[in-house]
User: Fold this.
Amino acid sequence: MAASSQSGAVLYEGGRLIAGDGSAAIERSAFIVQNGTFLRVGRQGELEPPPGATRVDLAGKTVMPAMIDVHTHLGYRRGATFRAENFTRENLVDQLNRFASFGIAAVASAGTDRGDLTFRLRDEPDRGVLVRTALRGLAPPDAGPAPPMRDAAYGVSSDEEARKDVRELAARRVDFVKIWVDDRNGTVPKLSPALYRTIIDEAHTHNLRAFAHIATLADAKDLLRSGIDGFLHPVRDQEVDEELLG
Assistant:
């Protein structure tokens, strides 16, 4: 699709338009964009473009709002492999380009980054995909994300360690804080309520939101009572109930 000029109007016509507001898709649509703003939307042949507007034929294409992926682990997947050695700038850029090609305009890397590569990509102008990152999440030692990502997280055993790690994340200007509250079917220690309450409190002190990887309904409820801002997995051990939904 041709990009609109910031100084002129563009009439896009002929494509299928999904507005994203719950209304029915418009077949053979037309819409006018000027200076990055949608001016009018309708059907092909119904809109009169401003004088000098560029026309772009979208026949056979679908236009819809960009998607957002709030739970990614960037850098590890390359082809059929999933490993720490894949965490390179080349692979990260390739993955972001793939996201963009599928209509995903923003991604959040959920606590398994290595080094400062993701920060650099976040802060580069005209990246094409908005990048947000938690950098390193927090979990008990050697008990956070699944291998080969496990060593990327902070291992915390005390309130002092938890607050120190969150302060370090805040100083590095992460976009959110990620924690793991999951014993992975009894195979690893679970982050204790005392520790995740400390992490949530310290995150909020620095105006950072905290999000949790969870598995059980009981943990989800206690995390909500403790002030967690959101979850990056659904409850998986039983049906959610009215108390959680309320």
